[in-house]
Amino acid sequence: MTSVCALVVTYNRSIYLRKALSGILHQDKKVSGVLIFNNDATDTTEKDLIEEGYLKEQEYRSNELYHSNYNDVEIYYYRNHENAGGAGGFSKGIELVSALDYDYVWIMDDDVYPEPDCLSETMKQMQLNQVSIGIPNRTDENFDDEPCIALDLEDYRKFWTGLRKTKLLGPFTEDAIFVVDLPFEGPVVEMNLLRKVGVPDSGYFLLYDDTDYAMRLQEYSNIIFATRAQLHRQLAKKTAATGVTEPFTWREYYGMRNNIIFDKRHGKNWKVRHLSPLLILAQRIRNSIITGHLRQNFPIIRKAFIDGIFQRMGKRVDPNY
To answer: Most buried residue among 119, 133, 157, 275 by CB atoms closer than 10 A?
Structure first.
């Protein structure tokens, strides 16, 4: 019987984490283990996990892997010494889970919630389509999942990765669709493949680490999108566009910087690697002029462009969570 260990990366979302864990532990296909990676949360995450019975009541030191048991499921717990961002959390979490003795890993953020047949349906489609990677469908009343079936890395004019992606919008009639990208929200990966590919690049800090990892995984296996396997995004909420544009924040910095780094790393030709970043720069400046935010935005644009061109990765702007 195949064994699955879920990896959950969490930061300051205790209430959502506990619902995610409940969903993971009530699957039709029972998981054998859960590794909770605490990205140095400052809320009551650790206290709440103890009260819920997931962790033993004891002192927990940073950078040590602890083990307990919850209803015959192995629980592993690791608290990082700092908030390493989503990329750093998944990188270290995948390093830790790769050292454990399981057949598959089920990777997810702390604010998702899987339906009871999510894991079984994902693995069913993986087996039927003979792939080592499967992802669930996040479509519900609050979110429309759009699986990416193609990624154009040859046209330099598609300077945003979002422009490069060809996406499908449901309702989906097929049980499974081959895709070329994945979010770290529910992918199931065969452990041997995970060990072969290694860990995601923590240098992205936030954003693009999952798409970059998908590129590396596909050197060995296709990815299947299981349309009947449902996973909810707890924080998703459909809102109408207001037309109001706010000044840039730390998130725009990481989005622009990492987009440039991704193009320079995966672009298929010289134009994508060198001209696309210039088009991003021009577009960001133009839009900032139109919205009247150039003075506030320009320092972020300048830093993101320079750091992207010179591929200066890691946490270079503090996120304001």
So the answer is: 119
The predicted model scores a pTM of: 0.95
For 8-28, give one letter per residue: b (16+ CB within 10 A) or e.
Answer: bbbbbbbebbbbbbebbbebe
Angle separating helix axes 250-266 and 209-217, nearest 10 degrees: 20
User: Helix crossing, 294-309 with 276-291: angle to 10°?
Assistant: 170
Q: H helices then E strands: how many in the chain?
A: 11, 12
7, 92 in Cβ contact below 8 A? no
Rounded distance between C-alpha atoms, residue 149 and residue 163, angstroms: 13
Dig out the tokens for 66 from the structure. Answer: 């602890």
**Residue (of 286, 279, 277) closest to 304 by Cα position:** 277
What is the chain's alpha carbon radius of gyration, rounded to the nearest angstrom? 20
Report the pLDDT averaged over residues 143-167.
Answer: 97
Q: 238-264 pLDDT, tens per residue?
A: 877 666 789 999 999 999 999 999 999
Give the number of other CB atoms < 10 A from CB of residue 182.
Answer: 23
